[in-house]
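Risk mitigation, structural track. In case the binding assays with calcium ion fail to produce interpretable data, a predicted complex structure has been prepared as a fallback.
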Amino acid sequence: AKKQGKNCFQFYTREINESERIRKKLYKELKKALKENQFVLYFQPQLNIHTLEVTGVEALIRWDHPERGILSPMEFIPFAEESGLISAIDEWVLGEACRQRADWKKMGFSPFSMSVNLSARQFYNHSLVDDVQNLLKELELAPNDLTLEMTEGTLMTDKEKTINVLKRLGKTGVSTSLDDFGTGYSSLSYLKFLPINKLKIDRSFMSDITEDVRDAAILEAIFTLAQRLKLDVIVEGVETMEQLNYLKETSCGEAQGYFFSRPLPVSEIEGFFKRA
Ligand code: C2E
Ligand code: CA
Ligand code: CA
Ligand code: CA
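Fallback model:
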């Protein structure tokens, strides 16, 4: 038994060393990716449910890895958050998304808002509001050209701080959206005092909305609540015509999902835009 225990221990340390090695490699690669501009933004359209006009696009990061090709954010954002590299990545995303919005503005497309995902670290960073304002000014963007998406998890961390940041963001005129709404934390009471503009309903509610009466009941309660609180609502994860038709009967304003389009690179998303 003693001998076996020792083997186990050796096996265990070898595993730790192995994962440590992988983490170090990933860290190095991510730093290189930042330096060599290997990140790209894809864009997914957001549409007015009734007119089907494009009201916005969400910027979603991808890593164009030199050997592994296009990588999903799920493969590197969690590690970037853990290791602190997220700050530099976030800074790049916000800047790049705003520059792209400005380019599209110059190209004369009808107005729509660029949605950017903020990590918790970025949201609580002291310079966030200044960074946003500087970008708008430098790129000659209007506040409603930009929407910031924060998850419930981020906003539930520190009530006082959260309200303070949201109020300051509100004064800049940019829109704020509560992402993945309805998951994790139960945040209905928070809605009372969170100065946000929009709820983005998590896609888990959409998945079997046309069959599951419970999902529909919850969703309709959220729509009513949002209406009473004068919050805009967007639903993500719309994949079928049935789901869209269901939404058309509700007070939900906007939708996003594979039914309309997957996230696309710059050159392909432009086909969705109209000339002003
Ligand atoms: P999210 O903010 O909830 O983004 C929506 C995710 O749902 C995207 O995955 C999108 O491709 C996917 N999606 C869109 N429509 C549908 C649909 O109809 N069905 C299904 N099943 N999925 C759909 P993606 O691009 O892989 O991003 C995953 C997550 O990574 C995002 O979730 C967000 O939390 C994070 N992320 C992406 N880009 C950034 C970024 O620039 N900064 C930060 N901090 N996080 C990011
Ligand atoms: Ca999002
Ligand atoms: Ca989401
Ligand atoms: Ca999510």
